[in-house]
Each structure stands twice: as C-alpha cells, then as structure tokens.
Predict the structure.
Amino acid sequence: CLSRGLGDVYKRQEFYYMIAERQLISHLYQNKENGQWVIQSNDEHQKGVAKIAASFAKRFELPSWGYALGLLHDKGKERAAFQQYIRKVNGLSTDDKKHYNDHAHAFVGGILAKDFMGKDVLNLLANQIISHHTGLYDYVEAENILQEKPLPEEIDKDNINIDIPLLYKEFLESPFSKFKVDRKHFHHLSRMLFSCLVDADRLDTEQFMNLESWQKRKCSSTVVDLLPKLEAHLQKLQLDAVDTEVNRIRRKVQEQCSKTSLGEKGFYSLTVPTGGGKTLSSLLWAMKHAANHAMNRIIIAIPYTSIIVQTAGLLKKIFGEENVLEHHSNFNPDDIKNEEVREKAKLATENWDYPIIVTTNVQLFESMFSNRPSDCRKLHNIVNSVIILDEVQTLPTDFLQPIVDAMKAYQKMFGVSILFTTASQPVLSGLIEGANPKVGFKGIEHIMEIIPTEFALHDKLRRVKLEIDNTGKTYDEIAAKVSEYDKVLCIVNTRKDAKELYNRLPDEGVKIHLSRMMCPAHISETICKIKALLKDEAHPIVRVIATQLVEAGVDIDFPVVFRQEAGLDSVLQAAGRCNREGKNRIGHTFVFSLSAEKRILFGSMAAANNARLNLPTDSDWFAPSTMEKYFQQLYFRKDTFDKKDMKHYLYKLDELCFETASKEFRLIDDDGMNVIVNWENSMGLVENLKKSGCTYSLMKQLAKFTVGVHRSNFSQLIKYGAVEEILEGIYVLADRAQYDNAIGLKLENHWMEEILMI
C-alpha cells in the first residue's frame, strides 16, 4: 500500500514537472506571420472568465458566485487526457505515452463545487459548470454525472482562490434572501448564473483567439445618449403635424408617458386605441424610465415579424442602424450595408449587448425557459432593462402561468421593468381563474396604468362603427359584399379561406391576396405595394383579402374592413386597420361568419369567439371594461394555463428539469415543414447552398423564401415529386409554376391540372 501510494505521489510530481516545463494549455493558435504557437494558459483563461462572469453577476448582487463559476469551469483541462488531446489535435507532440480515450473536462469543476459547498449548490454552481458546453441538465442526469466519475488524481484542488464564507454571506444579503423570493422562481436564477458563465467563457476565448471580432463587440451608445434623438424626432413630428384631435391626443399620451416614467421599477400598462401613437409613446416612457433608474437597455418584444420589420425600420431611422439590434428569423445581418455595423450586429445577436433590441415574444420567452448555451447566453443582459411587450393580448393562454411567473421573477429578482402595450389590454393581475378551479394562479400584484380612465381615449379616438352579423354566410355572399366597396380589407382566419375569397373577387381594379402561403419576401413586398396603392389616387379600386398577419401593428388604413368571426381582441385589432388616420368621419368594420361553408372554428380560436359571443350584444365593444369582461370569459373557458406542466419540471428547487422543460416550452406548435420556394433569386441561393453547404448567412437569406406547410400537405407535395431534399432536412420546390405570383405556394399538382385541361 505504501509503495503504491508513493508511486501515485511520484506520478503527480512528474505531471506537475511537465506543467512547469510546458504550461497547461486552455487555448492556442499559430501566429500566421512567424508560425509560432501562442498559448493561453488554463490559469489565465479561468481568471479571465471569473473576472467577466463576476462583473455580469454583480448586476444582481452575486459577483462572487460568478467569480467561482469562472475559476472552476475549466479545472478539468488540468487532466493529462485533455492536455494530450489539445496538443494532438493541433499537431503538437506530447511526452505522455499513455493513450486516453476520454478527454472530457467540464465534470471536474462540478465535482469540486459540490465538494466545496455540498449538494445544495447543484443548481447554482455545479450544473452550470458541467453543462457550459452542452446545456443545463435535468437534476437526475446532473447528479449521475457528478457521481459516476471520480476526481482525476492530477487535478490541483489546493490552490483555488474561492472564498466560500463570502459566497454564503453574499447570497444571504442578496435580493434573493432579502425579499424572500418565491422558491418556484429560482430556476431563473440558475439560468442567469449559467448565462454569466457561458457569455464570459465565450468572450474571454474570443478575446484570445479572435481579437479582431472581440474588439468589434459592444455598442458605445447608452440609452441616455439616445434619448435626445427620440425627443428631437418627436418634436419635429409635432411641428409638422396638423392641429387635429388625433394629434392633440397623441401629444397628451406622450406627456402622460413622460410624467409616469419617473415611477419606481415595476409593471406598467399603456392602453391606447389604434392611432393613438402607442409605439413612440411607449418608447419615450421606456427610455426616460431607463435613464431615471440607470437601466442598461430597452428590449421590445413583438408577436409578429411583420410588425418587427416595421418597428425596427422606424427605430433605425431615429437612432441609427448601429444602435438598434433586430433579432428574429426573417432578419439577415448581411443585409446591412455598412461593414462595421454589420459585423457588430452579427456578434450582438449572440448576447444582446446593444442599447435597443427588437425581437419576438417567442425569442424572449423561449430563451427564459431554455437550457441551451446559445439561448441562455443573452439572459444576463436582460438584467436591469426595460421590456416593452407589444400587443400583449397575443400571449398564448396555454402558457400564461409560466410566462406571468417568469415576468414576476425577472421584475423582482433582476430589476426589470415591464411595459404592456396594446389597444386590447388582457387581464393579467389578481387571481386568474379557469374552468377548473385547480388551474387558477396568482397574476401580477399591481400594474400601473399610464393612461387614466378619465382620458376616455376609446371615445375620443372612436373612428369606426362595428357591425356584427353572426348568421352563417357563403364565400360567394361575402365576396359580393366585399366587392361593393372600392377600397376594402377583408381578414379571415385561415389560408384556405383567404384563397377561396380572393378567387371569387371580380377582376377589376387591383385585388391582392396576403397569407402565409407566400414567403416572407413576397409578404413584405406585397404590404409595401398595398401602402403605395392606398396613397395613389390613380388606383381607385384596391381590395385585399388577408389572414391575421395584417391584424396587429401593420400600418395600413382602409375606410372599410371585413373580419371573419374571432375573439374580441382580434376583431378590435382588425378594426384598427379601418379609418386609422381619421380621414373619414367614420369607418365601417363588419364581422361575419362563414359557417354556411361549414368553416367551423376549433381550438383556441373557437374559445375566443365563444367568449365574444357570450358578451351582451349591446356592449360598447371599444370600452376597456368590455375587454376586461371578454378576457374573463376567455379565461373561464380554459382547462389549463400551463399546457406543458412547467411547474412540475421547474418549481421544485431540488428537482429542476432544465432540459425537459426547454423541450416542452414551445409557444408555437411546430407540426409543419418548411419548403424553399422559387421566388426572385431564391434558386440562385439554392445553387450556392448545394455548392458550399450551410452557412449562417446563406440560411438567413433563404429564410425569406421559405413557406411552412402542414405535414399532410408536405406529404402530398412529396407524392407529386414537387419537392427535393437538397441537404438533410432542407427541402426545395424549384418548379416556378407551383408558386403563384398572387397567392404564393400552390398545393395542387399543376401538372395534373394541365393534363386534365388538355
């Protein structure tokens, strides 16, 4: 026993002699000019990461925890196996004659964290360390990883500068103890610490390996710097504006936003009818609120990409493209002409280190519930920020409980202020109850409404008469009614309904179809065309049949709007496209049913429509009190506000299932398949894809030419032989005749149709 023990000592001494001679490597690269190898030692990397992670965690008063994560995360690189591996893959020799099959390193720091502080830190230190490359594990998997492997003998655990008493003291004095935060919110703290480590690790590595990219990071402007630009823009708008009732109301809304922006951090609501200047007023409130509380950034989350493109375009004109980050599936940073701004934007999509972010609700909330490093990396930059949730009524009720709980956690734990903006404010405060008493949950305790009820904006901005006819109609009947008007918008619930009505409109003037059967590039082009046509008096007849994609936030103005039956929030959003600028004394919005065509609503759409139908027929449809009653009716029809049972995976502190929750929390059911269609230059991009393979830039460009179809329709296209799989999981429909200039992707086999015609 004694001789074996001495042998182990000699082995360790030999290993540390090798370290002294050759240095423990964390990263290395070969200098292009002189061919010399440049090495970042593991000690340098860990201390660098620790320093950065501590600065991030300091924002929520846990800097020592960030520092500990950094010091421990790559301790496993001291393993002889890893040192042999990193030398071999870079073509360097190694004196170690032993061959190692396993060179994993992340588990080592997790074992040390557990040894130092016990199993209670599994989800605050250990899980973050062992998963910093793979993603946070479910607790069972994390425990197995920490138990199945012993601490390698060559790991030096005697020279780790972590002040354990300070960690305990800091936690007890932090907001997480001070305010007695609900234990069910702690999974967000776990991800936040994970975010600090992941971003710090990536940034320190990038600074060593790719200094040029690292130097391009970080936008130099702050919210305080940008606020004067917004104020100057608003002042110019006021000077140029005609003195109308609508413009006077917009000024009044802005004044109220300025006044209330001085309030404490918390939840706020801006309920303004369409046309009341909600977008710029909400931004004014957010920037002044951020400046007053020394907050870091403004994050604007929007439900639809069509609105994002419009909003981001406006903000870039005001603040400059270099200060506004667009982060959504349809935006390609390569479209930015300025090379420096383009590179900065690409890098910033990784961690949101910009003063103004414009993104989607899906991107924001799915990141909050994700376990993946790439998603979580940005989370620490949400700390001490203002979030504007635009069109908040679109939050999916099936996930309302975890979403509301997340907002409460971020507000209380991470100093975030949240502003809800809409013309149709949902009920998010108090006890939210459904059909089953057991599914009720506590909403937000207090939401400060910026616009007082005495302003009565729904009366002063009333520019539309709403007429509802619940009797069933046919396609032909609705097409005939729509055709009675020269400039008219008709919004329906499905792509099938849009196509059927469009085909029944007379071929006079300009008729336009707009649905998700069209690729994003085609949709954007068509919306621009509609706006231009409405301003052009040479085109007296402009009739548009569209799905809900134009319903919220798209700045178009028709004197007459038709809306297929739906929930009251959707109906009022449609009415917001009617007489938007008050050019007519009164606009008309007609609500109709297609039940005569057996077009029966189902699922959430049916529940929303039934909630509307259950309101008194003499209701003032535009009054906030009616909207409140509508959402109560809607909630009463819900069997669950937590469709995927997030509380089961995330609310028990010692049984957190990060990976499972991440897979389950999907705000959009993705049961379809994406197909690249033949539109504009898409086939040229496809040829590039075949030659060079997938690149980030190329896939972003191709996203503009992609249409999502149901799996059954996709199978039919495959059966026709219309779709080709050019790379794994990437499908192309190259036949130009299968994509129509008016309606987009055609699901019917055009070859079969031509044979039948012959």
